[in-house]
Amino acid sequence: MIPDEREVHKNIMDELDFHQIDFHIHTTESPSHGAIPLDEVIRAASRKGLRCIALTEHWKPETDPSIFSEERELIERADTELKIFLSAEVSPLNIQGDTPVDPKVHRDILEKMDYLSAGPHQHEETLSKGKAEIIARSHVMLMNILEDDLFGYVLHPWVTVIADLFSRGHSRVLTFEDIPEKYLDEFAEAAAFYKKGIEIYSPAAVSVEGYDWFVKKLLKAGVKIGVGSDTHQKEDNEKGISKTTQAAVRLIRSCGGNRSSLWLPENF
After folding, report:
1. I need a surface site. Which of 34, 86, 125, 171 has the fewest CB within 10 A?
2. At what angle do helices 211-221 and 181-193 cross, to 10 degrees?
3. In terms of Cα–Cα distance, which of 154, 159, 223 is closest to 188?
């Protein structure tokens, strides 16, 4: 990046607010059916008034990591004032937090990326258990993620756990009240200690009760937070500003969050 471009992006980052970012976007490089090319993502983001986005393709055991090198080339060739971070959504394989990413094997790929995002999802190691054990094992997994230097940002923590409890009939509503307060406090304290950014992920279709309780804990602990649409499909990209990010921004502001609460990758 030439000096003038660096100064432009620096000014953009200094002035950013939550409604101008989307740190959770999948493109055609991701193995998601119906995903969108980067140039379409850029056009849509600019039309929506966004100033900074992050590409977060899934990095699974079967993923060819070369897709991230290809994305870096696309980003560098893009003719846009939009600041584009290159990340990946890496889902832990077990409650220990093991991942398909090997810092030694994938060193060249990781050097091309701005940061990695942990995308915790449930798996049989947790879901085969009863409600209390699902929650307890998920807590162990999340704490291990926070301690891992590999990650700078954590996508939708606890929300996927709550959604799975609901879908499997363990809960009648989507609610943070299912999660022991001790676990939420420990998560917030660890996120602050390890300086992890946390995504506030507020599904538009149905709200998660008690999310404000969790957000307030994060803000009180001094955790930096962000928002993202989790766009996978072309039709999602073509809509207006995502209802998911709109809801998350409203939630953050209602809890007292402001620009000073916004997470950004280190060195930006």
Report:
1. 34
2. 40
3. 223
Which 8-state DSSP code applies to residue 100?
A: S
Q: Report residue 115 as tokens.
A: 């940061």
The answer to whether 24 and 54 have CB atoms below 8 angstroms apart is yes
**Token pair of 68, please?**
């991230």
Distance CA 141, CA 135 (A): 10
Look up tokens 């937070």; give the residue. Answer: 225
Confidence of residue 36 (pLDDT cuts 50, 70, 90): confident
- Burial state string for 194-214 with b = 16 or more CB within 10 A and e = fewer than 16: bebbbbbbbbeeeebebbeeb
- For 195-218, the DSSP string reads T-EEEE---SSS--BTHHHHHHHH
* Domain boundaries of the chain, sorted by first residue: 13-20+88-227+234-261
CA dihedral 254, 260, 264, 266 (to 10 degrees): -150
Q: Could you tell me the two tokens for 237? A: 């990209």
CATH class of 13-20+88-227+234-261: alpha beta
Percent of the chain exceeding pLDDT 90 equals 71
In the DSSP assignment, the letter for residue 262 is: B
b/e for 122-158, b at 16 or more Cβ within 10 A? Answer: bbebbbeeeeeebbbbbbebbbbbbebeebbbbbbbb
Q: By C-alpha distance, which of 81, 25, 31, 76 is closest to 54?
A: 25
Look at the chain and count its residues.
268
pLDDT digits (tens, 9 = 90+) for 228-259: 988 876 666 555 557 778 899 999 999 999 99
Handedness of CA 259, 260, 266, 268 (dihedral sign): positive
